[in-house]
Fold this protein.
Amino acid sequence: MSSRENAEIPTVHVLEPIHEEALEQLRAKVHVVAPEDQGVACWHDNADAIIVRSHSVSAEDIARARKLKVIGKHGAGTDTIDVEAANQASIDVVSTPGANAASVADLALAMALSLSRNLMEHTEALRNGITLKNAQRIGWEIGELKAGIVGLGAIGRAVASRLQGGFDVSVTAYDPGISEDAWPQDVDRADSLEALLASSSLLFLHVGLNEATRGMIDRKALATLPKNAFLINCARGGVVDESALAEALANGHLGGAASDVFEQEPPSPELPLLQQPGFIATPHIGGSTHEGLRRTGLEVVDKVLTQLGIN
C-alpha cells in the first residue's frame, strides 16, 4: 500500500478499553490507536474519530481537534461530552442506548435483593462474630415491596420486566418524556414524581443526567419516600444529592440504598455516603459484563464506521 493510500485511511483513537472483538472489527477497517498505544494522548492532532466510555470531551478538546468528524460514546449517556460544541463544529456524536440495558438491569436487581435481605450487614456480623438482633435478621421478599421506576427507557423497561416476570411485582413508573400511546401497558403510570416517590418502597433510578434531572432526588424527594424504603441508583451520580442521601440513611428514614454512580468518579474514600451502614456501592460497573461490553463495543464501532462512510 502506498503512503498516499495509507494516509486516506481514517484514524480512530479508542481512549478507553473496549471489547477485543469490537477492537478487531475496527482494526479491519481503519487505523486504530488503542489505550495501550503511546500516541493515544495526542488524539487532537490526527483523530478522525474517537471512542470514549467515561472520558470527558470538552469544548476545548473539540476546538483543538483538527480532523475530528465523529465522537462515539460507548454507552447511552452523553453528559460527559459537550454535544453542543460538537454540533457547532459539525462533529457527529453517536451513542449506544439500550446496548447494555440487560447488564445494568441485572445489577440493579442484584442491589435490590442484597438490600432487601440485608446481605452486607449479615456478612459483616459473621465476619466479626456478632449475632444480629431479630429485627435485623428479618428481610423482605421483593414481592412485598411496592416498586417504582424513574425513567422508563431501555434500562428502566428491562428492570420492570425482571420485576414482573421474576418476582410478580406490580410496577409503577414516572417518565414525562414518553407519550401515552407509547407507554407500556403492563406498567402503571404515575402522574408526578412526588406521587411515585410517596408510593415506592423500592425505588429504581434510570434517567440520564441533564438540567431537568440534576439533583432531582434531593432532601424533599427523599423525605417523600416511605420510611424504610430502599433506593437504587444505576443512572448518574448527579441525579441524587449525595449529602441528603447520607443523612436519610444516618437518621434511619431509609432502610438502605445502593449506587453504581457518583457525582465524582471514582468517589473519595472519605465521602460521607460511603461511611453509612446500609449503603452498597459499586464503581460504575453496570454495563461491565462480558456480553454487555461485547454488544456495546460492536454497536459503537458500527456507528462510528457508518458515520465515517466506511460501512
Remarks:
- The domain at 101-281 is CATH 3.40.50.720 (Rossmann fold).
- Residues 1-6 have pLDDT under 50 and may be disordered.
